[in-house]
Amino acid sequence: MTRLELLAVVLRTTDYGESDRVVSLFTEERGKLSAFARGARASRKRFGGALEPFTVLVASLKERPSGDLYGLETVSVRAAFGGIRGDLTRIACAGYACDLARELTRDAEPHPELFQLLCDYLALLDRAPARPAALRAFELGALREAGFAPRLDACARCGAPVTAGDAPRHAFDLSHGGALCPPCAGSGAGGTPVSAEALDALLRLSRAGLEEAALAPLTPAAGAEAQRLLARFVEHLVGHRLASRKFLDELGPMLG
């Protein structure tokens, strides 16, 4: 029976029976997987508080013959992110980031760059207040690393260049996954309206790192529009609205 030690982020936990838990992990080497933590609820001695969402840990796992569920033997915490857990907005952002990584990836499909991005974003939240620009940069980075990056500087339908300054209003096609050039947007084929300011902000954030994005605040109008557009795009991709997204939206004024 194969035993593994994997660096992982705890995405979520689900109680099972009277004393056990099923833990969803996002690992650096094997992507998303589920592990059965026997006795995790009955005794805090074995796992302590290590199985809390968005904790980074080294998980000692045992592969089961069926292959669909690992056995979680022991854990060693690398980062608990105590700075996040005392702030409701940081908790909301961290929970949403973990949900997004979980929804955008398949089981056992490694995404080391997305894993690192998630760890970097959690570390940023741990040491600084939650900022809308940094969250938008994380969303765009997660979409890119998962293979769903929206096209923002070229038409998603015909490939023609799209420049935000060419017109005050543009369009974004959810099905084609990107901005539309004026001819395609004017063809009557639909698309979600987006202002030049919001499109330019999204393009800038898609090219910026998390640290840089956190230092470049968005205007309230562009920030709100970028948030709504990305929320709709993610919902279109995964087929439903994330519960963590709903909670995050309720805290919108606090994030502003």
From TrEMBL:
<feature type="domain" description="DNA replication/recombination mediator RecO N-terminal">
    <location>
        <begin position="2"/>
        <end position="79"/>
    </location>
</feature>
<keyword id="KW-0234">DNA repair</keyword>
<dbReference type="InterPro" id="IPR012340">
    <property type="entry name" value="NA-bd_OB-fold"/>
</dbReference>
<comment type="function">
    <text>Involved in DNA repair and RecF pathway recombination.</text>
</comment>
<keyword id="KW-0233">DNA recombination</keyword>
<dbReference type="InterPro" id="IPR022572">
    <property type="entry name" value="DNA_rep/recomb_RecO_N"/>
</dbReference>
<dbReference type="Pfam" id="PF11967">
    <property type="entry name" value="RecO_N"/>
</dbReference>
<keyword id="KW-0227">DNA damage</keyword>
<dbReference type="Pfam" id="PF02565">
    <property type="entry name" value="RecO_C"/>
</dbReference>
<dbReference type="InterPro" id="IPR037278">
    <property type="entry name" value="ARFGAP/RecO"/>
</dbReference>
<protein>
    <recommendedName>
        <fullName>DNA repair protein RecO</fullName>
    </recommendedName>
</protein>
<dbReference type="InterPro" id="IPR003717">
    <property type="entry name" value="RecO"/>
</dbReference>
<comment type="similarity">
    <text>Belongs to the RecO family.</text>
</comment>
<dbReference type="InterPro" id="IPR042242">
    <property type="entry name" value="RecO_C"/>
</dbReference>
